[in-house]
Amino acid sequence: MSLRPEDIPAxxxxxxxxxxxxxxxxxxxxxxxxxxxxKVVLPKASASELKPLAPGEAITKRQxxxxxxxxxxxGDKAPEKLAGHASDIVRAWGVHSLGHIGPMTVLQRxxxxxxxxDDPHFGVREEAWLSQRAHIIEGLPEFIERxxxxxxxxxxxxxxxxxEATRPRGVWCKHIRVLRExxxxxxxxxxxLKSDSSKYVQDSVANWLNDAAKDQPAWVIExxxxxxxxxxxxxxxxIVKRARRSIx
Length: 248
Fold this sequence. Notes:
This protein is mostly helical. Helix content is 62%, strand content 0%. The protein is globular and about 60 Å long.
C-alpha cells in the first residue's frame, strides 16, 4: 500500500522541515511545508517570498519556485552553494536555480548540473533533469552530443541522466516534439546502453523507447529487433520487453 502524506509521522515531518534529514519518498516530500525549510535556509526571506512554496500548487511548480527563491538570495553561485546541503529538498532547489540562470554554453550547464545528476538521492537526480529540460529542448542537438559522453560514464546515475533527460514524452514535463517525430535523432544516446548492467539505466532506456513507440512504433521494432540479434544478453532482452510494452 502506498504511503500518503497524512501517514508520515509528525516527528519525521519536523525533522525534514528543520533540514535534519532527507525525504525517503514522495509522500514525505508532499507532507512537509516547504516554507519552513526555506526559512531555515533563508531566515531573512519574507512571507511574500515564501508564498509560492505554500501547499496547494503542484510540487514540481513549488520546487521551481524554491530554485528561483534561492537564486534571488544567493545569486548565480546558488547551485554550488547548495550542492552539499544536508537536505535533498534544498539541493533540489540548487539545481532548479541553475535552470533559472540565463545564457551559458551547453558544456557549462552540464558541468554545473553534473553533481546534482549524480546525487545520492533519487529525488535530486529527478529534479536535475527536470530543471534543465527547457534548456535541453532549446539546444537539443548539442545536448545530445555532449550527453553521449555521459553514456560512457562509470556512474549509472549519469548514464541514466542522458536518456531520462531526453525522453520524447517524459513525465511531468514538456514533450520533445522533434524526438517524437524522429526518435532516430536521439539514437546515439541509446545504442551504448542497449546492454547496460544497471537496471536503473535499463528502465530509462526502455522508457525512452516506449515513449517513442507511442508515435513511431515501427522504428522501435526495427531498433529492438536488431538489438536482440546483436546483443544476446539478459539486459538487452529486459530492455526490449519493457520498450515494447505499448506496442500491439
